[in-house]
Amino acid sequence: MRRKRFFIAPIILAALAVFGLITMLLWNSLMTEIFHLGYISFWQAIGLLILSRLLLGFSGPWGRHHDHGRSHIREKYAHMSPQEREEFRKKWHHRWVHDWPSCDEFKDDSTKQESSEDKKS
Fold first, then answer.
1. Separation of alpha carbons 97 and 102, rounded Å
2. Does a structural domain hold residue 109?
3. 24 burial type by CB count under 10 A (0-12 exposed, 13-18 middle, 19+ buried)
């Protein structure tokens, strides 16, 4: 186990150094030209990487996969009868489609306002 730690630690430090160097080079070449910001040092780039990880999370390069309870809904849906599934689909379709006004309703409202303004003139 100790051998594994001694092997992984230098790799992590090397990766941090490489990412810090890349961050520093990109900042100094892009941010100074685009936004007229000052140059940063290597240690400031490392600090920027650490700060971004603290603010954005330590979830890895692709982020964590959040299910938000969808697997429970899928499991429940799998055990439904065809009639229950159809009722479920109608309920969700009504909830997501009919609760929001359509573009046609907005157009109708705007034409009503225009016609009422024309009548006043």
1. 9
2. no
3. buried
Q: How many CB atoms lie within 10 A of CB 8?
A: 10
Residue 45, domain member (yes or no) = yes
Question: Do the Cβ atoms of 27 and 9 come closer than 8 Å?
Answer: no
Class of residue 47 by CB neighbours under 10 A (exposed 0-12, middle 13-18, buried 19+): middle
Residue 98 lies in a domain: no
Structure tokens at 75: 């499991």
Predicted confidence (pLDDT) per residue in 75-94, tens digit: 888 888 999 988 888 888 77
The pLDDT tens digits of the residues spanning 17-53 come to 999 999 999 999 999 999 999 999 999 999 999 999 8
